[in-house]
């Protein structure tokens, strides 16, 4: 008989529940994106376009070409600042859906003041003053919904959306009646000269508004997670009763959150007009608020993740603008994709809530 020895081979350790749980947020963020791309691809098929060719063309134009990549970076600027504004409000349990109105009035204010200020003081002084004015008007426009929520408990979603509609009409009327450039046939504000706008970064078409936007978004992220005021805001969002019992002053916190968010919304418009647009036209309404909300939720209100989502969305926007002329796909097709993204994001949130309930 010969002795036989058995060599024990280590068994593969299965993925622990903790590891699987860590993958759930990632899956809940990526699956709505993939589902939206597939659904939008089906729409492209109905329109007679090849989805794979369309998406490849969009990536090539918005990411792989140097001029397209620069345009992508420029397009990110207002979205990043608006994302910071919504991170502040959403983490605090408040829905600042009037962000579009605050953005438009911030743009209008900077568009009306910056061309006049540069005639009196150097751009190094004039542009920050115009940005501060845009932020102040954005905060002021967020104040009525904030007061209604803080004092009477009126839902800020409805009042914010109504203020946005008023802002859109008010901006157009102000340009046509009082702020119109007399030298222009189109209703628009005075034009800020190119040489007086925000300086460019190196030998590119990207201005330092990108640096400002990244700094604002990172600051919002860090303030909400690592400072005492941010802790108060998050407690307000998690449990208003706990905030009341802790003596934080819920009405004051509510005013602070919504006005800070509104100020950032106005700042986004001011940075856009002093860096790229140079003026505001009466018919201009990009609807950034509709686009940034799903991106903030996909990023789970994390500033670092939001940078990646905004970058991907900007690639899509820039590439889609080119595809509209070259491939015959409507330029508003990006809004179709955003709509699918909102739909699948809601389903993802529902699935995530069901998973959390089962674990409990």
* Largest pleated sheet: none
For this structure, the CATH topology is ABC transporter involved in vitamin B12 uptake, BtuC
User: How far apart are the termini?
Assistant: 58 Å
The mean pLDDT is 90
The CATH architecture can be given as: Orthogonal Bundle
- How many domains in all? 1
How much of the sequence is in beta strands?
under 5%
Q: How large, in whole angstroms, is the Cα Rg?
A: 24 Å
Name the helix and strand elements from N-terminus to C-terminus, one letter apiece: HHHHHHHHHHHHH
Structural class: mainly alpha
Q: Would you count the extended β strands for me?
A: 0
CATH class: Mainly Alpha
Q: Which spans have pLDDT < 50 for at least 5 consecutive residues?
A: none
Number of helices: 13
Question: Can you put this structure into words, describing what you see?
Answer:
The chain has helices spanning 17-46, 51-64, 66-91, 99-117, 123-152, 156-177, 209-226, 228-238, 240-245, 250-277, 288-298, 303-326, 333-359. The chain is globular. It has one domain: ABC transporter involved in vitamin B12 uptake, BtuC, CATH 1.10.3470. The protein contains 13 helices and no strands. The mean pLDDT is 90. By secondary structure, it is an all-alpha fold.
């Amino acid at each position: 008989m010969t002795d036989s020895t058995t060599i024990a081979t280590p068994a593969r350790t299965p993925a622990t529940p903790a590891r699987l749980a860590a993958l759930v947020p990632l899956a809940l963020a990526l699956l709505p994106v993939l589902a939206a791309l597939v659904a939008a691809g089906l729409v492209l098929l109905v329109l007679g376009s090849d989805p794979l060719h369309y998406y490849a063309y969009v990536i090539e134009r918005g990411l792989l070409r140097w001029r397209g990549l620069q345009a992508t970076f420029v397009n990110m600027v207002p979205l990043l600042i608006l994302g910071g504004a919504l991170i502040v409000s959403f983490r605090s349990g408040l829905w600042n859906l009037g962000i579009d109105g605050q953005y438009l009035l911030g743009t209008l204010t900077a568009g009306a003041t910056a061309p006049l200020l540069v005639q009196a003081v150097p751009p190094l002084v004039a542009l920050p003053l115009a940005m501060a004015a845009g932020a102040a008007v954005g905060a002021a426009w967020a104040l009525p919904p904030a007061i209604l929520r803080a004092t009477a408990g009126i839902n800020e979603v409805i009042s914010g959306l109504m203020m946005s509609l008023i802002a859109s009409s008010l901006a157009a009327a102000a340009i046509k009646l009082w702020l119109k450039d007399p030298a222009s046939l189109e209703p628009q504000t005075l034009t800020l000269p190119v040489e007086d706008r925000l300086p460019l970064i190196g030998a590119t078409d990207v201005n330092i508004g990108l640096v400002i936007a990244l700094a604002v978004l990172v600051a919002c992220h860090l303030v909400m997670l690592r400072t005492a005021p941010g802790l108060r805001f998050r407690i307000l969002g998690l449990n208003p009763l706990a905030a009341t019992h802790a003596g934080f002053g819920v009405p004051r916190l509510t005013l602070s959150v919504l006005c800070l968010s509104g100020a950032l919304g106005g700042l986004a418009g001011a940075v856009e007009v002093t860096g790229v647009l140079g003026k505001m036209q009466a018919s201009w309404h990009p609807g950034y608020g509709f686009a940034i909300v799903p991106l903030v939720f996909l990023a789970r209100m994390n500033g670092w993740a939001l940078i990646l989502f905004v970058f991907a969305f900007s690639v899509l926007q820039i590439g889609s603008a080119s595809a509209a002329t070259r491939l015959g796909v409507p330029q508003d097709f990006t809004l179709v994709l955003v709509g699918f993204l909102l739909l699948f994001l809601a389903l993802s949130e529902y699935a995530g809530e069901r998973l959390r309930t089962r674990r409990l």
